[in-house]
Amino acid sequence: MRLEWLEDILAVLETGSFVEAARKRFLSQPAFSRRIRMIEEHVGVELFDRTKKPVQLKASVTDQQTNIRELATRLHDLRNGLRRQDQESQNRIVIASQHAITTSVAPSLIKDLAAHNSLNTQLRSANRDECYALLMTKQVDLILIHHSQIDQIPAQDSFFQQYELGQERLIPVCATDELSRIKKEYESGHIPVVAYPSDSFLGQVIDREVFLPMRPDMAINKIAETSLTLAILPLALAGIGVAWIPDSLAVPDLANGKLSELNDLFPCCELRVMAIRLQDFESKIEPAVWETIASYPDRKGRS
Beta partners for 200? Predict the structure, then answer.
């Protein structure tokens, strides 16, 4: 049984609902529900009574909550103790980064950390919900995430310290040899799209800032979907449809002519790149790390 699974069950016990438990765990509702199904499949029994609204833990699980709490606490303390000792002996920091940032901001930041602090950095690539979950369960020291201007970063100021490292744009592109076809389909009221899933952060940004404002008669045909930004690029290059890609990722193929930008037809999405850590969990090397982050060359401001 994984520690985060025990913490998921405890979150339902403490909040009394899947919705509030998902919010407490910094997961979207669909992602949290998938995790619960995974736990039940692993254990081999149903943990929740879905005949009741809202869904409730079964009495057999509720009766075990003291044991669950004790086990979660012991595993938490053991993991953090081993991790802290390992980091202090190896001068290592663990970062979780959204997939797109892993190939844009993260490499130069890791280079700075190595140059100024002689650090070994372990980089984990994950989606935005998973990054927050890893941070809250103290499996990583800090996270690098995208933040949309109209989104709210969780407001628990006592929990988080955050810096803005820079800004990126999601730009609309398509394969250059498919440009004529894409424009004809657009004129006829159809848009073939390589999309992010609607329950992912980037999918929600595109849905809200691009698709929702379009005229009502425009048909959006999501031909392919993936939450991996690095997979969006080859799908766009294959000529499948329009894709919104971080500008830093698209630059080489825009320069060599394989991709064409469609900013005359579709809007871009402005994103901030944020570094976030917990206020109450600091290893011996973190002050130097945050000093380096605060002076990161591409950082536009401090929040």
Answer: none
